[in-house]
Amino acid sequence: AALGFSTLMVPCPTVAQQSQKIPRVGILAMGTGAAPAPQIEGLRQGLRDLGWIEGQTILLEYRWAEKVDGLPARAVELVRLKVDVIFAVSSTQVEPARQATKTIPIVFGSHADPVGIGHVASLARPGGNITGMAAVMTELAAKELELLKAAVPHVTRFGVLWNPTTPSHPPALKSVEAAAEKLAVQVYMVPARTVDDFEGAFSAMIRERVGALLVVASPLTYYQRARLAEVALKHRLPAMFLLRENVEAGGLMSYGPDLTDMSRRSAAYIDKILKGAKPADLPVEQASKYELFINLKTAKTLGLTIPQTILIRADTLIE
């Protein structure tokens, strides 16, 4: 009888494991989930590198929105689930998450301007429930215009395609205007909220006789990159992007950080928060490496000869 009683007193491993709370991370992203963005894969890889096993030691709750106006409802769903952390890919996802909660930690993978928008107090001390990795677009957009001008030195009027639904774009446009003044060129700003706006936007730029295009990055220009490259080629406009994926889809050039790597590194924030750290005390880190991609096939289609001074600066030439 004593032996039987002692056996009953031994805790069952399965029950003990079930009693331990498995942390849940909510992922707020654009798309359908059918083909996750590289940033999501980067985050998952980063978590694996830190020892987190999806489905066993950590649960990932995915909430996708096909359009920006669907993000607030998805963010509220994650808050109702009482997830431990929300991962928001960029500023577009951070804003609805911020509006949905002031207490659940929010980690961003590639924020374009966290201080300028007001999502953090400073890079060194975020001060609230939001932190993560940043690639400051206000600086990048100006650099992209400079590189595009060097690639097409004969152009003096540039179109700038931007998205009013992306929080980081207004300060980026101011930076572009300042850069244009220094370069002694003109810029023509054209908004596009959806893929249906592309044709009208390009027609407006052609009427204004722009000779090249700077595309300010947003979820729209990423997920619709094939269509965007197609329309740019149709109107014979050399285009500069932030992301290499846009160049691989047929765009002319891109200059920016590796967003997949940034999301992989953002997993460290989630790891620290789940182990007790506060977002307010975790400094925002910035991308340390930027890459220039040039699609030579697109240049040939456009009848462009890229100056050698630009070609030797490229990290990758797509032929």
Could you please describe the fold and organization of this structure?
- The protein is α/β, with parallel strands linked by helices.
- The protein contains 15 helices and 13 strands.
- The chain has helices at about 1-10, 15-20, 40-50, 70-80, 90-100, 115, 135-150, 170-185, 200-205, 220-225, 225-235, 245-250, 260-275, 295-300, 310, and strands at about 25-30, 60-65, 85-90, 105-110, 130-135, 155-160, 185-190, 210-215, 240, 255, 285, 290-295, 315-319.
- The strands form 2 sheets. Strands 7-6-8-9-10-12-13 form a 7-stranded mixed beta sheet, with helices on both faces. The chain has a 6-stranded parallel beta sheet with strand order 2-1-3-4-5-11.
- α3 crosses α13, α4 crosses α5 (about 90-100) and α7 packs parallel to α8 (about 170-185).
- The longest helix has 16 residues, at about 260-275.
- The chain is elongated.
- Residues about 1-20 have low confidence and may be disordered.
**Proportion of strand residues:** 15-25%
- Give unreliable regions as ranges: 1-19
Biggest sheet architecture: 7 strands, mixed
Note the run of SSEs as H and E.
HHEHEHEHEHEHEHEHEHHEHEHEEHHE
User: How much helical structure, as a percent, in the residues?
Assistant: 40-55%
Number of helices: 15
Mean pLDDT over the residues: 90
Note the gap between the termini: 79 Å
Radius of gyration: 23 Å
**Coarse structural class:** alpha/beta
Find the count of extended strands (DSSP E, 2+ residues): 13
Q: Within the largest sheet, what's the order of strands?
A: 7-6-8-9-10-12-13
User: What is the global morphology?
Assistant: elongated
